[in-house]
Amino acid sequence: MKKPHKFDADFSSVLLSDERAKQGTSESIIKFSKITKRDVAVDFGCGPGFLTIPLAKKCRFVYAIDINQRMLETIALRSKKEGAPNIKPVKSTEYSVRLPESADFLFALSLVHEVVRKRKMFEVFHKLLKIKGSLIVADWRTDAKEWEFGPALHERISKTKMVELAAGLFKPKREKLMENQYYLLFEKV
Ligand SMILES: C[S@@+](CC[C@H](N)C(=O)[O-])C[C@H]1O[C@@H](n2cnc3c(N)ncnc32)[C@H](O)[C@@H]1O
Question: How far is residue 94's CA from residue 156's CA, in Å, rounded to a whole number?
């Protein structure tokens, strides 16, 4: 099987573009999650911080995890520039990362489709969250209206398949359909 494509850091500005924001804004994901100022969050596969920076302004602390060091360097710069000091960039390997505390919320935005062992990734999410913690997965619809943005169809994961991948580890609680993406909120069991 061909490995799914990983987002190239050379094109990271695309992830912060106005065009991208039309697919689903960081504000809509944050609102969907119902995170509060008391909560600690993980932004898993954070990229250049499309979600990380606005999220940090709405919660206590954010661990910004990525496998790509250049993405983390961008986060560190943007965190200073945008006045969001409550962010710690953390480098992961493909299925492993350590944090000093468990999180209340974990966001995986446009990440799961880039990973080969998707169930293993849900096990990693499970380890990082507190019991009853919330996992928010936002990924690309297989029945999208337009295809200019986002991964190729064969790399996309349907909403139903995403729920199956989480079964036994997470209970689905809420969902929201955007034009080209879906948001799912799970509770850790
Ligand atoms: C399509 S980008 C999305 C970035 C960000 N979540 C956003 O929505 O703007 C996917 C990101 O996941 C990272 N990534 C891919 N596989 C990963 C893994 N196994 N662990 C951590 N990060 C990973 C990539 O380096 C890339 O920055």
Answer: 19
Q: Note the helical H segments in the chain.
A: 12-15, 18-21, 26-33, 52-56, 69-81, 118-128, 159-166
Per the listing, tokens 């050379």 go with: 10
According to DSSP, the residues that pair with 91 across neighbouring strands are 66
Ligand 1 touching residue 66 (CB < 6 A): yes
Q: Is the minimum distance from the CB of 6 to ligand 1 under 6 angstroms?
A: yes
Domain boundaries, the chain: 9-15+26-188
- What is the topology classification, in CATH, of domain 9-15+26-188? Rossmann fold (3.40.50)
Asked if residue 110 has its Cβ within 6 Å of ligand 1, the reply is yes
65 lines ligand 1 (CB under 6 A): yes
Model pLDDT for residues 38-83, shown as the tens digit of each residue: 999 999 999 999 999 999 999 999 999 999 999 999 999 999 999 9
Q: What is the pTM of this model?
A: 0.96
Does any ligand 1 atom lie closer than 6 A to the CB of residue 50? yes
Pocket test for ligand 1, best of 7, 29, 97, 156 (most atoms within 8 A of CB): 7
Q: What is the pLDDT of residues 151-181, one digit of tens each?
A: 999 999 999 999 999 999 999 999 999 989 9
Which of 66, 93, 125 gets mutated to test ligand 1 (max ligand atoms within 8 A of its CB)? 66
